[in-house]
Structures are given as structure tokens and as C-alpha cells.
Specification:
155 residues, mainly alpha, globular, 6 helices
């Protein structure tokens, strides 16, 4: 049971890690890898996709080395990172950017709020300015925008 709790705790903490990494690393010294995500270039793959590998390595190492040494705390940490990576892929690549056309329309309030927050993030094409650096948690102002839109549609 403790290993499940560790996995879930790491999953939750990864939102903070993602926010900090996105704000200070991707929009900082590794902008060279993230820039093509804001300023589209030709092709399916982006340099930004390297961040998937960058985050996958510690997850894989924790799971592999933890398994080899029967250190299940390490395995749990790696599993939490991997679960967050899967959620990130689903939300960011499939739901928001629709790089894989699985969910093209939704009336779900959370999905509309997360898409709006990400749209506001992408309105800034440079690395200095920006907002909404997280992935799964949506700021109150984006929820309010979606609610206002719903009220306008119902009138």
C-alpha cells in the first residue's frame, strides 16, 4: 500500500516539477529545444519532443535500478513519473494539440479550460513572456472564462 501512495504522491508532485521545468528550463536555457513548439516549423516531430526523453530517463532508471535492487520505493517513484508522462502525453499531445486525432471535440468543461489555458500560453511566441506553465491543473481565471462562455451560449 505504501508503494501505491508513493506513486500517487510523485504523480501529484510532478505537476510542480513540470511547472518549474516549463517556466525556468524550457523558457530558459533550453529554449532552443522548446522554441519550435511555440513557433511552428514543418514536420510532425519537434525538438521539444526531446523533453519526453529527458523526463523518461529518470523514470526508467528508477524502475530498472529499483527492480534490480528490490528497492520498491525507487520503482514507485519511477512509476509515478511514468504515470505523469502518460497523462501529459494524453492531455498535451492528444487532447490539446491534437497531434493524434482521437479527441477532436469535447463539451467537457475541464478539457475546454485546459485548452484555453494552453492557448493563452501559446499566444506568447517568445521565451520571456508567458503564462499557464502547468499541465493538468487549470488556474481559476480559465475556469471562469469557460463558465462565461457557457452562459453566453445559453442566452
Amino acid at each position: 500500500m505504501i508503494y501505491v501512495l508513493i506513486t500517487l504522491l510523485v504523480f501529484v508532485l510532478m505537476e510542480g516539477v513540470t511547472w518549474l521545468t516549463h517556466r525556468y528550463v524550457m523558457h530558459g536555457f533550453l529554449w532552443v529545444l522548446h522554441k519550435d513548439h511555440h513557433q511552428k516549423e514543418d514536420g510532425f516531430f519537434e525538438k521539444n519532443d526531446w523533453f519526453f526523453v529527458i523526463f523518461a530517463v529518470p523514470s526508467w532508471l528508477c524502475i530498472m535500478l529499483g527492480s534490480m535492487n528490490q528497492n520498491y520505493v525507487s520503482v514507485s517513484i519511477g512509476a509515478g513519473i511514468a504515470m505523469y508522462g502518460a497523462a501529459y502525453f494524453l492531455v498535451h499531445e492528444i487532447i490539446i494539440h491534437q497531434r493524434f486525432k482521437l479527441f477532436t471535440r469535447s463539451n467537457n468543461r475541464y478539457i475546454r479550460a485546459i485548452r484555453w489555458a494552453h492557448k493563452m500560453h501559446h499566444k506568447h511566441i517568445g521565451k520571456e513572456e508567458g503564462e499557464s506553465f502547468g499541465m493538468l491543473l487549470v488556474a481559476k481565471k480559465y475556469w471562469e472564462k469557460v463558465r462565461r462562455d457557457e452562459k453566453l451560449k445559453s442566452v
